[in-house]
């Protein structure tokens, strides 16, 4: 994954820079070791924070995409169910789904078919409610 490779490259670069900085200054090996340890800890913390932010962002985008996919799936299943329902194949019904709420628009030839369209829609998995805006036309 590109993110993992970027983190590795940043980490390796920081380690090299830290080592060079520690070697340039006079002092004991212990002081240089402490500075390297601190630099490693700082890079590690930064890398962890960046990875967490990236993970959160991916999770949020996944949820948004999942919700859109659910609505699209509900719409497709509703259209298929209405087409399979006897007497409804010739009706001009538009199906729109937003956050699990299905809106039916268009026309029905009888009040019974208008009610039946809403009833069929309510049976679809994921449907929270139905706005039946079908009008009767003959």
What is the global morphology?
rod-shaped
Q: In sequence order, what are the helices and strands, one letter per element? A: HHEEHE
Helical fraction: 55-70%
Query: Could you list the spans in which at least 5 consecutive residues all have pLDDT below 50?
Result: none
Question: What count of helical segments does DSSP give?
Answer: 3
By CATH, the architecture of the largest domain is named 2-Layer Sandwich
Number of domains: 2
Instruction: Report the structural category.
Output: alpha+beta
CATH class of the largest domain: Alpha Beta
Strand order of the largest sheet: 1-2-3
The fraction of residues assigned to DSSP E strands is 15-25%
CA gyration radius, whole angstroms: 30 Å
CATH topology of the largest domain: Histidine-containing Protein, Chain: A
What is the residue-mean pLDDT, rounded to a whole number? 78
Number-wise, the strands total: 3
Distance between the termini: 59 Å
Q: Main β-sheet: number of strands, strand sense, barrel status?
A: 3 strands, mixed
What does this structure look like?
The protein has helices spanning 2-24, 29-84, 111-122, and strands spanning 93-98, 101-108, 129-136. It has 138 residues and is of the alpha+beta class. The chain folds into two domains: 2-65; 68-136, Histidine-containing Protein, Chain: A (2-Layer Sandwich), CATH 3.30.1340.30. The radius of gyration is 30 Å and the shape is rod-shaped.
């Amino acid at each position: 994954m590109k993110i993992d490779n970027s983190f590795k490259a940043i980490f390796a670069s920081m380690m090299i820079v830290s080592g060079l900085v520690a070697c340039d200054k006079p002092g004991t090996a212990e002081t240089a070791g402490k500075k390297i340890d601190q630099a490693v800890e700082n890079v590690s913390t930064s890398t962890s924070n960046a990875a967490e932010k990236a993970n959160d962002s991916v999770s949020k985008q996944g949820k948004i995409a999942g919700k859109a996919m659910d609505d699209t799936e509900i719409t497709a299943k509703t259209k298929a169910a209405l087409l399979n329902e006897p007497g409804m194949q010739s009706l001009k019904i538009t199906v729109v789904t937003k956050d699990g709420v299905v809106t039916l628009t268009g026309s029905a030839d009888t009040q019974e078919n208008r009610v039946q369209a809403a009833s069929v829609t309510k049976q679809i998995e994921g449907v929270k409610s139905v706005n039946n805006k079908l009008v009767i036309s003959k």
